[in-house]
Amino acid sequence: MREAPDPVPGEGELRVAVRASGVNFADILARLGLYPDAPKPPVVVGYEVCGLVDQVGPGVATHRVGDRVLALTRFGGYADRVIVPAAFAFSVPSGLDDASAAAIPVNYLTALIALYRMSNLAAGETVLVHGAGGGVGVAATQLAKLRGATVIGTASAAKHDAIRALGVDHAIDYRTANVVDEVRRLTNGRGVDVVLDPIGGRSFADSYRLLAPLGRMVVYGVSRMAAGERRSLWRAATTIVTMPRFNPLSLMNRNRGVFGLNVGHLWSERERLGEGMMLLLDELGAGRIRPLVARTFPLEQAADAHRFMQSRSNIGKVVLTVSP
Questions:
Q1: pTM of this prediction?
Q2: 234 vs 312, which has greater pLDDT?
């Protein structure tokens, strides 16, 4: 922790007094020096916050001081004050606590774009969600069920009751079972229509093999590289080397599609991200989705929050809280 001057919002920006900040694997990769987008240390990580607007920059007519907002940030979230574009700040629905609000932007936008836009998930289809107990996994399960899909989720056995309660139809223990064999058994050899894979390495190849005709795979992370508290260049290299190369002719002949997704690289698509957030907030207000917070940590214990998340102990979102 260190003290710094409070930032000042510029044209079209707000300053938010942060009450809660979401923790994402991108933060962990940045800490390990494995996230190319991250500025050189010292850097404040964090992509999403909830708090109160305490200063409004020039040209902003949509928000006022005192408004309670959830917001997307481009780094800077692990702080008590952060500058955000006004276009990326949204009113918090009544009845939603700070930690739950901070759990929405990154995870739910990732799941929404992956399922509703890229893969265009339809009723009756089957989706395989790797890491169904994580923040994106929980969001994806909820959104997939709204589309009338069947959800197969991978998670450690201790999480199975919880993810089934959240909507997973078939749970697979990735630590003891052969995921490829289990998915084929569950689908009578056909495979799945959609796969969401944040793992990387050989997992991408296995997921691709499981696609049914007209199947779509969305890759949105490489969590396999974040195995310890310190960077392992060997693990990073082997993860990259073992990733498959997708041949266009093979994609055509097999009638499959592969998409890559990084919400952090959609910063310029403010209108589309805004539309996605409004859809999510509508669903939230109607009670059809609900963020799940696994555990909160005080901002001063961010290191413990990272350890907890890397241990794969969480069911839902890990959130940092900031005292007023």
A1: 0.94
A2: 312
